[in-house]
């Protein structure tokens, strides 16, 4: 298990800091409480930089800076947090929606260390049906399915033993549909249907899905774990839990003490 990343100091929410023309560095919090920070002149760039050092790291060199940092931390101007790691986000897909998602998601995402992404990239795979995701298989892949005028995202999970995969979701949807043969054929040919004869998500729908996905990935992908998120044409967002299909020897999803028997 990787060791936790070191904590660093950063400005608390609502705090602003700047070098005053009067001499000291000034900090003000959300309630407009001001603090004047008189530190060594050569330490001023350090105080105004990011991330901020911890007091014990600078006490021997800049005792006044260390005292200022300690006072700010005790007064709530500073907070400790684990720095997020920056991961490159790659959007793969040929549909025009993929190009728009690239514009929304950008080239990198700050991902909390606890998010569970194990690779160096987050791969967002965009397609018109789940069939093109069969070979994905990466723990950090995020499926984005274009379904007519709507967009379905997920499920995603770093632990395939606990979270459903695309194959599980496809099997459940086919089993529940009144015309599974036609649904499966639609998934296979949807990308080849000319635009004037096929429904596609509007730009606003894709933008809404991209904004939701960016916020979700940046926050640790907590909703995408074991859920499918549907962004409809009217921009409404709904979340649907998806349980992995039970297999012989697996515990029942609702009753862990019960295990599925092989048939």
Question: Strand-residue fraction?
Answer: 15-25%
Secondary structure class reads: alpha+beta
Order of helices and strands: EEEEHHHEEHEEEEHHHEE
Arithmetic mean of pLDDT:
80
Whole-Å distance between the termini? 38 Å
User: Uncertain regions: pLDDT < 50 for 5+ in a row?
Assistant: 1-5
Strand order of the largest sheet: 7-6-8-9-10-11-12
Helical segment count: 7
Inertia-based shape: elongated
Classify the helix fraction into a percent range.
25-40%
| Number of beta-strand segments | 12
What radius of gyration results from the CA coordinates? 25 Å
Largest sheet entry: 7 strands, mixed
Walk me through the structure.
By secondary structure, the protein is of the alpha+beta class. The chain is 26% helix and 23% strand. It is built from seven helices and twelve strands. The chain has helices at residues 44-47, 55-58, 63-75, 96-105, 166-176, 180-189, 203-218, and strands spanning 8-11, 16-19, 25-28, 34-37, 78-81, 85-92, 108-111, 121-127, 141-147, 150-153, 227-231, 237-241. Helix 4 packs across helix 7 (203-218) and helix 5 (166-176) packs across helix 6 (180-189). The model is unreliable at 1-5 (pLDDT under 50).
